[in-house]
Amino acid sequence: MKQVVHIIRKVEFEKQYIKGLQFELDYELSTLFDALTSNDQRQIDSSKKRLEEIHVELEAFHVFS
Question: What's the number of domains the chain is made of?
Answer without folding.
Answer: 1
